[in-house]
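tool_call predict_complex ligand=magnesium ion
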Amino acid sequence: MKSAVARGVLEVVGRPAGPAIPPRPDPAALLSALPVPLLVLGSMNRFRFANHAAEQFLGISMAQLTQLSLADLVPEDNPIFQLIEQVRSGDLTISDHDLTLESPRLHKTAITVQGAPLPEEPGSVVLVLQDASAARALDRQLTFRSAARSVTGMAAILAHEVKNPLSGIRGAAQLLEGSVAEADKELTVLIRDEADRIRDLVDRMEAFGEKPIERGPVNIHRVLGHVRRLAQSGFAASIRFSEIYDPSLPPVFGNRDQLVQVLLNLVKNAAESIVASDHATGEIVLTTAFRQGMRLAVPGSDHRMHLPLVVTVRDNGPGIPGDIRPNLFDAFVSSKPSGSGLGLALVAKIISDHGGLIEVDDRPGRTEFRLHLPMMIEDTTD
Ligand SMILES: Nc1ncnc2c1ncn2[C@@H]1O[C@H](COP(=O)(O)OP(=O)(O)O)[C@@H](O)[C@H]1O
Ligand SMILES: [Mg+2]
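tool_result ok
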C-alpha cells in the first residue's frame, strides 16, 4: 500500500526540468534478476516460488518445482528442515552455515542457508541459498584457518623465545613484591599473574592445533572486566571505555584464558589505533548481546553449534589501513613499525578453535571487531 502511494506521487509530481527519477523496478523482475537463489516454501514445505538463480541452483524448473516439496529433494533428517521449522515457529530469521544438501537429485556441499518468515503469508518461509564460493565473496565472516597454520609454524620458535625472559620477569616481580608499598603490591601481583597466563598460553601454543582446548562455562562479562582493568592500568590509561552489556547473557562455552587473550589483543589494537591517531577523545566500546539464529558446524565434527553470543570491541580510531585489509588476519601482517602482526592471527585461531566466527566492520571513526561465540548449552539436535 505504502509503496503504491509513493509510486503514484512520483508519477504525478515528476520533475520535468531536473534529472528524471527512474520508475521503481517491478518486484517480480527484480527477484528473477537477483543472482542469489531464493525460494519460498509454503505449508508442508511445498515449493511456491523459485527465482531464476534458484532454478539453476537446483537444476529444476519452476514449473516442476511447484509439483514438489522440499522433502522430495532432500532427506527429511537434513538440518535444513529444522531451520525451516524454527523460522516458522519463532518468526525469526535464521542462518545455517556449511549445510550439505545431498540426495539422488541434488549434490551441494558447504551451503549457507538463510531462512526468514513471510509475514504476509503465515506458514510460508523464504530461503536464500549460497554456495561456499559465493559465500566467500559475499561474506566477511572469516575463520582464517590458513592464518592459523602460519602461526603454528611460529609457535615453537615463539615458545622458546618467550619462556626465558618471562621467567625473569616473573621472578623480578616476585622479588619486588617483598619490598614495595602495600598499594603497589596489586601491580606486582598483576605482573606475576599475567606472566603466568602468558606462560600457559605459550605452553598451549607449543602444541598449537594438536591439543583439544579445555572448555567450560565462561562468564564473558568477567573476562571483559578483567581485560578492561588490564588495559586501563597500562596501554589504554588515557582512553575512555564504555560498556554496553546484556546482563542476562548465558555463559560462553569456551576457554577463559584464551578468551582473555582474544579480547586483550582486540582492545590493544583499538587502543593503539586511537593513540597513533592522536585522538583527543578516544573511546573503546565493549558490547555483548544475544542474537538468535546464527549456527555453524563445529570443526572436525558433524555437530552444529548455535553462536548466539555477540561480543564486540569498537573504537573511534581511523580504521584499518586499506592495503592490509585483505590479509588482516594473516600472521606477520602489521602496519606498525614494531608490530608483530601476530595478534589477529592468534585471535582468528582461537575463535576458530572455539567454533566461533569473527567479523570486521570498519569505517573511518568506527572500527568494530565482532565475535560470534557459542553458549554453554549446545545444540545437539541436528
Ligand atoms: N582497531 C583497529 N584499528 C585500526 N587498525 C587495526 C585495528 N586492529 C588491527 N588493525 C590493523 O591490523 C594490523 C594487524 O594487527 P595485529 O595482528 O594485532 O598485529 P600488530 O598489532 O602487531 O600490528 C595492525 O597493524 C593494524 O594495522
Ligand atoms: Mg596487535
